[in-house]
């Protein structure tokens, strides 16, 4: 299987070509860091520096994709360069290979290379000075530090800054994602709240309109029809008022200062009176003190929806509504006759039960509804916060 090398980055190609051309120019001008010597007589001194130069320039093509092999081959080339007249460009290219090995290499290599080059810098300075007993030998260590330790340390610093920037970017993306999730959840929660309000406000009146309009159409009695039309008109006006109130709630944040009234438990008696006007036999028993506004609203809507369901589905008989406060909670208990309905009814979607259950759950309470013998029973427990309600 043939070995396929990754395509070099275009900047790396520019560096390699530019370095090679620069080295050839200096070689053509005869500029070299060392002078010809008899010690190099066995080498073709004029052409020898071009070999390490070419190899190092070729390694630049791998500085990002294969930084470790590029550094190893470049190290062999720089060692070979020391036994020739040498090239300044070869040394500069090697420092870039050292820098790239730390910046683009593996995390382990990035940690190891600065320590190794630092150790080599110390050894190459101290050992020759101790052996030759000449302080000038310390310059060897300085040279190694400039060629190896300095670019490795620079690559380590740049890599740390790059990693820190990447971590900051990831944290920013996570924060933005969490913010978007919170926004989406807030939108969903608000839509659910508006849906509950819309259903609870309008369903009662529309159910009464549907039932009485059906009665008016099915009973050939002018007096009954007139009475049904009066109830239809009354519920239409009340439903319109509730819709206007809902619009006021939706517009509460658009700069208007008009206050919007929130239903309270004091309005439950009005719900019962309205249900009686629509033909239900309803009695109310209330035994509770002051409760927080969210609990009042939830209890009001649960009673309202229970009466609406009784109007649409209950058999003939008495509907009982009880509100009591006990054990740190407000208890709502509504019963209605369960069985076949004698008169006209209205269709249901089940959204009312879902809305009541959601209202209780939002307050940390409980809700249950279902047949209990000959009665349809609705029970809700709404915890009351400790302290005086605002």
Write the layout of secondary structure elements.
Blueprint: H1 10-29, H2 50-59, H3 67-81, H4 88-104, H5 107-132, H6 138-218, H7 222-250, H8 268-277, E1 281-287, H9 293-313, E2 318-326, E3 329-337, H10 351-362, E4 366-372, E5 375-383
Parallel strand pairs: 1-2
Antiparallel strand pairs: 2-3, 3-5, 4-5
Helix pairs in contact: 1-2, 1-4, 2-3, 2-4, 3-4, 4-5, 4-6, 5-6, 6-7, 6-9, 6-10, 8-9, 9-10
Characterization of the model:
The protein is α+β, with helices and mostly antiparallel strands. The longest helix is centred in the middle third of the chain and has 81 residues, at 138-218. The protein has helices at residues 10-29, 50-59, 67-81, 88-104, 107-132, 138-218, 222-250, 268-277, 293-313, 351-362; strands at 281-287, 318-326, 329-337, 366-372, 375-383. Strands 1-2-3-5-4 form a five-stranded mixed beta sheet, covered by helices on one side. The two termini are 79 Å apart.
Radius of gyration: 44 Å
Strand content: 5-15%
Number of DSSP strand runs: 5
Neighbour order of strands in the largest sheet: 1-2-3-5-4
| SS field, number of helical segments | 10
Q: What is the domain tally? A: 2
What is the helical fraction, as a range of percent? Answer: 55-70%
Report the end-to-end length measured between terminal Cα atoms: 79 Å
Spans of at least 5 consecutive residues with low confidence: 255-259
- Structural class determined from secondary elements: alpha+beta
Characterize the largest beta sheet: strand count, sense, and whether it forms a barrel: 5 strands, mixed
Task: Please write the string of helix (H) and strand (E) elements.
Answer: HHHHHHHHEHEEHEE
What's the rounded overall pLDDT mean?
A: 82
Global shape: rod-shaped
